[in-house]
Design goal:
The strands form two sheets. Strands 3-4-5-6-7-8-9-10 form an eight-stranded antiparallel beta sheet, with no helix packed on it. The protein has a two-stranded antiparallel ribbon with strand order 1-2. Helix content is about 15%, strand content about 35%. The protein starts with a helix and ends with a strand. It has one helix at about 1-20, and strands at about 35-40, 45, 55, 65-70, 80, 90-95, 100-105, 110-115, 120-125, 130.
Amino acid sequence: MKKTIVLSAMFLGSLFFAQKVGGDRDVHGCIGSAGYTYSQIKNDCVRVFEQKIKLKEVGSDKSYTSMTAVIFSKDMKKAEIFIPDGNAKSIILDRQGKGKIWKSGSHIKESYVLVPYKKAGYQIKKDDVVIYQ
């Protein structure tokens, strides 16, 4: 009888623990506590800090500096930026013409622009002010 109670307690405990680990999945199945967020362009969970193009915040008056990442679509017509302060997890920017400028759509309150910076970098501007580079 004691063996049955102990085994039952262990089984129920393992079920409880299994529900807690990874219990913070979002609607796309991404586990936020493991650093994952959903990418609209990749249609998959990504870790922003592992992306190839990372930009640091500039001109911040906070005691820390945040970073963001840029993910391009395969055809380079769209760019996805991950702005920590925004309501959305990421913002999709559309390339303007054949140039190398990507802008947010008119449905976004703030105006975001991604432009090349120096040799291999980029800048993100919000309402014409550089916020990441």
